[in-house]
Input
Amino acid sequence: MVYLDNAATSWPKPPEVLAAMERCLREVGANPGRAGHKMAIAANRLVDETRKELASLFNIGNPDRIVFGLNATEALNLALKGLLGPGDHVVTSSMEHNSVTRPLNTLRGAGVKVTKVACDHTGAIRVADVAAAVRRNTRAIVLTHASNVTGTVMPVAEIGRLARDRDLVFIVDAAQTAGVLDIDVTNMHIHLLAFPGHKGLYGPPGTGGLYVAEGVELNPLKEGGTGSHSDLPGQPEILPERYESGTLNTAGLAGLGEGVKFICREGIEKIRRHEQELTRQFLEGVKSIKDIRVYGPCDASRQAPVVSFAVGERPAGDIGAILDQNYNIACRAGLHCAPDAHRTLGTFEQKLVRFSFSRFNQPGEVEYALYCLREIVEKNIPAPAGGGCGC
Amino acid sequence: MVYLDNAATSWPKPPEVLAAMERCLREVGANPGRAGHKMAIAANRLVDETRKELASLFNIGNPDRIVFGLNATEALNLALKGLLGPGDHVVTSSMEHNSVTRPLNTLRGAGVKVTKVACDHTGAIRVADVAAAVRRNTRAIVLTHASNVTGTVMPVAEIGRLARDRDLVFIVDAAQTAGVLDIDVTNMHIHLLAFPGHKGLYGPPGTGGLYVAEGVELNPLKEGGTGSHSDLPGQPEILPERYESGTLNTAGLAGLGEGVKFICREGIEKIRRHEQELTRQFLEGVKSIKDIRVYGPCDASRQAPVVSFAVGERPAGDIGAILDQNYNIACRAGLHCAPDAHRTLGTFEQKLVRFSFSRFNQPGEVEYALYCLREIVEKNIPAPAGGGCGC
Output
């Protein structure tokens, strides 16, 4: 299997990730922060170690401002619903994932006003358009760091400055960029950073989290046992407990810590160069295949290692199914849980095929994928029986 | 280490659980329900397999009515906040965990009325008292299946009948009983069953879920990518997607499936007998140690394999620290995230030491624990420097 679906979840994981998870389950199975015994303290230490690794990666001063949850979606729900209330206005883009658009849709029903700034046909946003959308009652800007459809990198640093200057809370969805691009919450003026553990950070699924800047107060999404301050009727004020209720994914977080260490050891710049090179190779190669239209910046330096394309007028699901069943290539065809983005690109009906690369992909795999696409186009290979899933 | 903290998380796990997690991460790392390719389909199959195992265990007709999340706390938050709104009244007990009392505390702020039925000094509730608490606007009863402090088993079947007769939604917190006691949602008339994956079901931490009966409509706690019906502005109507947003803990759920299979293979009755025997052994042995007071039913057949006790007037945290540091016994001392329960028992100030047993504990460990407790009392062993953590 040639795995080009790393934007959904990265695979494979570095072997250290699996080893750490197994060690955690075998040796320190206990519940962190729930008791004073040696195993519980060891479990706590593992989780806190991961917090520290992430804090260092994202330039977060206090690791306890990172709260863990099931995934980036949970983090975004906590950020948006925890922050915004009736009468608030929020500015977002037309390239967001459903993990932003759907919570905003619910909040709209609760009296929050939402402005979606239109992006261009490459998925790019203009900072001036964001600035123009800010109103007197604007509370926050929420933006993806890079589109999960086109990979388009958003001008997060500039918009961070705008947010700072206008005294707005800046929420960034780093689903496609955590571990992939440099993220510096301090210098980028990011107040709330939602990240998945299982994509560019090479941790296992079931991990993700939210950085909450000092001074930003959120209503918790969940209340429950926090292992400390158990006598209080509500959640404790202190972080991370305030936003972490119930048992964490201890083993998964131990694995995530190893994923982050792997990135730091390899060097994020080196990984970025490798992924950028694969993206460039694909973008270059695909140009010569007639009938394939790539959407997005078509410039490896301006996108995450994510490329989406259409083949003639053929439904994307058919191409995805052919790649899977005839060529053993795992990719993702469909709307990518981002219908707004597809509307922006004009691909809502046909949908798109997405390739996404990781540190572990090799140039030979890109070459093979190009070869397959050329054959599909030239021989007009039909979709396998049962057709494709375009979800 | 003698591990007697299974009510926090069970340890060790059956080896098949770890093997399934590793196999999932190594071979089917992809994101379930997010693409049509073979690896994604394999991931989906693993998760659905676990749904089926759980449905069979709990006598749930349609496995898709089980939704997965990070832990039982998330499931309880979804159940309570998803169901209850301003003007609703809910009946609960005075023995609940913070995973019930804290969401209810928040809901109270939003106009939900809450009646806490007082339990007796053994943690037991009278069905007549629950019936008497029901009002015209009562919407639901929420009850723990067994106290996480005293192990007291609640009369869930009787209260289920009451709920059915009075047309109330019946919410059960199975944190201490899933995999430990028989749970039959159909015959017990349970509408919403919250369960952790990592305690009596022997799965890894980071897993848990909620069974949602046909006809019960909840507002989702989280919205986001569901991998299907991506074009909708809000969550799809169908389950499990409606309540499952973002990437699931695929590997963890694969492990959980093996945990449930382990239980079914061993036989839940056989596991129950073993755990009941350990509980009985401890209750019997502790009687002859002067100055130790056990709280709860003191009858292994009427409690989950959880026993809490006080040693004279000594703070529970001190005893927990001595057990850990002098004797290498992992237990849990403190309020157990259940301050209401401790108020009911009259142990809010002193707190309690809790022992909890699993399938993997052996009579020799109980004997050792009794020996240590006797020594602590007879020699009046002092707390180690630094003292105990009573969380």
In short: The longest strand of chain B covers residues 138-144. Chain B touches chain A through 93 residues (CB under 8 Å). The two ends of chain B are 21 Å apart (CA to CA). The CA atoms of residues 64 and 287 of chain B lie 47 Å apart.
